[in-house]
Amino acid sequence: MTKAELQAQIWEEIDKSISDDVLVRSEKRELKALLIKFAPDKAACDLLRSEIFSLAQSRANPSNYQAILKWVEDLNKVLLSVQKQEKLDERVYFSPGEDCLNAILHQINSSVQIIQICLFTISDNRISDALVTKHKHGTHIKIITDNDKIYDQGSDIQVLHEAGIPVKVDVTDNHMHHKFALFDKKTTITGSYNWTRSAERYNHENIIISNSPKMMREFEDEYDKLWNELIYYGEL
Predict the structure, then answer these.
(1) Which of 44, 78, 131, 225 is the residue whose CA sits 20 to 30 A from 185?
(2) Cβ contacts of residue 175 below 8 Å, gap of 6+?
(3) What is the model's pTM?
(4) Which residues contact 50 (CB under 8 A, 6 or more apart)?
(5) Which residue blocks in the chain are alpha helix, DSSP H?
(6) CB-based burial of residue 184 (10 Å sphere; 0-12 exposed, 13-18 middle, 19+ buried)?
(7) How many Å separate Cα 149 from the centre of its chain?
């Protein structure tokens, strides 16, 4: 069953349960089982609560007000019992030194599904080698970069392209100056750090690593927008 189908079934059960103004035990069990499968995060639960309150408002009248209030309370308890708890994890690293490099390599090596990279320049072959290895093992990798840096001495874009990793390039007079990467649609890396040897050895740079769903959504929206706008490296 897809998420959309589960969501529709959950709402059907909620709508049915309010018909007699009471959330009975069997309805609680059924809803809890569906919600466990759906695995809602806080944002999904908040949206569902808003819809439940709207439904309760439309149903309530002076004679059933207390019963509807109890129905809302009972339903909210079911939601709280299944809501996926997301502990915010944020880490900060600085260069010069290998802290940023090692954190990036760890994130690449531990990712299994998709890595979306948006960087002004990539020239640290330790990172590029790790990306090629992950690509060969089936991790889907996509790269966005800027045309002003792809032909610099030491740039690894050609190597990554030849390995079969899709690369898109900003060819406008402006710079695609972002420095962020998204891992398995769960973890975001951003900061001033370009993936270069100079950034690791000499520059005062930083990265932030976060599992914030909100940060992921907003960076992924920007990534998707740029990916749709830019051209493939092979078309230059």
Answers:
(1) 78
(2) 120, 146, 148
(3) 0.66
(4) none
(5) 3-17, 25-38, 42-59, 65-82, 99-110, 125-136, 157-162, 197-201, 213-229
(6) middle
(7) 27
Which long-range contacts link 87-91 to residues 24+ away (Cβ below 8 Å)? Answer: 88/210, 88/211, 88/212, 89/209, 89/210, 89/211, 90/208, 90/209, 90/210, 90/211, 90/212, 91/208, 91/209, 91/210
Q: How far apart are CA 125 and CA 135, in angstroms?
A: 15
- Domain residue spans of the chain: 3-82, 90-235
Residues 206, 92, 120, 219: what is their CA dihedral angle, to the nearest 10 degrees?
A: -150
- Name the CATH superfamily for 90-235: Endonuclease Chain A (3.30.870.10)
**Tokens at 181, concatenated:** 């990467």
* Active site positions, annotated: 177, 179, 184
Tell me the pLDDT of the chain (236 aa) as tens digits: 687 888 889 999 999 999 998 999 999 999 999 988 888 877 788 888 889 989 999 999 999 999 999 999 999 899 888 876 567 889 999 999 999 999 999 999 999 999 999 999 999 999 999 999 999 999 999 999 999 989 888 999 999 999 999 999 999 999 999 999 999 999 999 999 999 999 999 999 999 999 998 899 999 999 999 999 999 998 87
